[in-house]
Design goal:
Structural class: alpha/beta
Strand order of the largest sheet: 3-5-6-4
Order of helices and strands: HHHEEHHHHEHEEEEE
Number of strands: 8
Distance between the termini: 45 Å
CATH architecture of the largest domain: Orthogonal Bundle
Number of domains: 2
CATH topology of the largest domain: Arc Repressor Mutant, subunit A
Largest sheet: 4 strands, mixed
Radius of gyration: 24 Å
């Protein structure tokens, strides 16, 4: 399910209200935390207020908070206000979008219907001839281009000179047939964390391509992204030992 930017902002705001029910939160405070435009967020909060989900107070200490009993407000209520999935009570077996929304609203119990729908989709795809997004024989650049355009909605891909050398070296040593894992910001489908959600008219910039040969894939780093650190030059395991009586040394 592709949620609209307004829906995402409304969900983030709802989570903030639920986490801090004792006080009112200002538009500026929420906008600053989620890097959103205060003017845009004010329109989203205004829609929540008109729907009766939140109340607003002006003056010193004013802001927005859930109206009434917070336990009666679900994330599905918020989603249904901005997305065309129908009201929760009117749907016996929701479409896939509704099933995903149920997970957000009902957590584990809400995931049961989604699990059934996923199984149905997989079985149907297997019968209909499931295919991957790209064949492994495709060159590295074309794989990245396919992911960028088909998954992220990018207009194209650009490479730094070091990244171009990485691609050339990997294909030269026979690793070009490996699948691709893209490392990018979680805030946007672009590689720019300031362009929240699903922006349009952007290009993905590849800064580095490195192999994870043991795992069997290539890691494509985009934008200014940091990956998790690997092992140090001297792994901690080198200083560990276990005595015959089972006593372990070197863990701390």
């Amino acid at each position: 399910m592709r949620l609209q930017k307004n829906t995402l902002l409304a969900l983030c705001s709802a989570l903030e209200f639920a986490a801090q029910p004792a006080r009112a939160l200002s538009t500026a405070e929420i906008a600053r935390k989620y890097r959103a435009s205060p003017h845009h967020l004010a329109k989203v909060l205004g829609r929540l207020r008109r729907a009766g989900l939140v109340s607003a107070a002006r003056g010193s200490g004013g802001g927005y908070r859930f109206s009434g009993n917070t336990r009666r407000v679900t994330l599905l209520d918020v989603i249904a206000l901005f997305e065309r999935i129908g009201a929760p009570a009117q749907t016996k077996k929701p479409p896939l979008e509704g099933a995903i929304a149920q997970v957000l609203a009902l957590h584990v119990n809400g995931g049961l219907d989604l699990a059934d729908r996923v199984i149905e989709a997989v079985e149907s795809a297997e019968k209909g001839g499931f295919r991957f997004l790209y064949p492994l024989e495709m060159p590295i650049r074309e794989k990245v281009e396919t992911i960028a355009r088909e998954v992220y909605g990018a207009e194209g891909v650009e490479y730094t000179r070091p990244a171009e050398r990485d691609v050339e070296a990997l294909e030269k040593i026979g690793l070009g047939r490996l699948p691709v894992c893209v490392a990018k910001t979680q805030y946007s489908l672009s590689d720019d964390p300031s362009r929240l959600g699903r922006p349009k008219g952007f290009h993905i910039t590849v800064s580095e391509v490195r192999p994870s040969a043991g795992a069997g894939f290539l890691v494509v780093l985009t934008g200014d992204i940091m990956t998790m650190p690997g092992l140090p030059k001297k792994p901690a395991a080198g200083g560990m030992r276990v005595d015959p009586d089972g006593t372990v040394h070197g863990l701390f």
